[in-house]
Amino acid sequence: MSTPGTLTPAPHDSLGLGSGPFGIAVQDEALAVAVKDGLVRVEELLLASTSSPYPYISEITSHLAQAGGKRFRPLLVLLAAQFGDNTAPGIVESAVVVELTHLATLYHDDVMDEASLRRGVASANQRWDNSLAILSGDFLFARASTLLAELGPQAVRIQAETFERLVSGQISESVGPAGGQHPVTHHLEVLAGKTGSLIAASNRFGALFAGCPAADVEILAEFGEHLGVAFQLSDDLLDIASESEQSGKTPGTDLREGVHTLPMLIALAKDPAGDPATARLQELLRTDLAGDDAAFEEALALLRAHPSMEEARDVVRGYAQKARDVLDPLPDVAAKEALRGLCDVVISRMV
């Protein structure tokens, strides 16, 4: 049962605060009104920022924004702002910056992953082509930069540092672990860069523009980093364990493309002696599954039933707990329990 001030899973779009796994109900009325109103303003500016005077550009660049999404990062900007003046200038604009940045990375990721489905609709590279998908991502980065220019040099610096971590994380994932580095350790570092950094920036922007003390800004950014890793890990588990109607994308995309997420890395690290299922799974994970539907389906079934899935869930729970714990020094406002509640939602969305 939820306590006052927490966020709990709710029916689809019950309060207009989001859809999918992060559709939430806010028990504190003042917080509910502030977040709902903020998200409405974010959505208006987001759609305006993805449009162009040229209709054919608008059609592509607004494709994913209009498909919906959890708006998880803008939500975190708005919640972090509750620890200061949540009506201050720059909060909504910075929330749109992080969502534009996130959307841009999705366009690029889908090209790299050769994905065919995103948010329940055809990915941009599938509907148009790779070149237009990449250029659309670049367009969204440019629109984010336009907003940042109005927010000042500190915001530009935060975005630049975040973007560097995003790109470094992607490069590190492509290159693989350094000599002697454990693959799981490397993977978690990659996720901290690719996902944790932008979610940390979301909290940092919200707290910064709300005028929070520097110590509180750092606490909220650290919370975002831990939550971001937990969020991405849970997303990867959802991709393996769910059907496409639940996850909004083709199940097993990473598995098919040979991208090893946490449960796969855990499975690969196990001693297969005396365990035929693990031995067979390891064999399949080391082969090219992209063009072999039968092998892919076998690997997916073995992975779903493998103990590595529960071990990966334990890692998610650990990151979520670290996120909860770091919030302890913050003032006891409704948003504090709301952020803690989001940690629970990240865990509960795992299947």
TrEMBL record:
<dbReference type="InterPro" id="IPR000092">
    <property type="entry name" value="Polyprenyl_synt"/>
</dbReference>
<protein>
    <submittedName>
        <fullName>Polyprenyl synthetase family protein</fullName>
    </submittedName>
</protein>
<keyword id="KW-0460">Magnesium</keyword>
<dbReference type="InterPro" id="IPR033749">
    <property type="entry name" value="Polyprenyl_synt_CS"/>
</dbReference>
<dbReference type="InterPro" id="IPR008949">
    <property type="entry name" value="Isoprenoid_synthase_dom_sf"/>
</dbReference>
<keyword id="KW-0808">Transferase</keyword>
<dbReference type="Pfam" id="PF00348">
    <property type="entry name" value="polyprenyl_synt"/>
</dbReference>
<keyword id="KW-0479">Metal-binding</keyword>
<comment type="similarity">
    <text>Belongs to the FPP/GGPP synthase family.</text>
</comment>
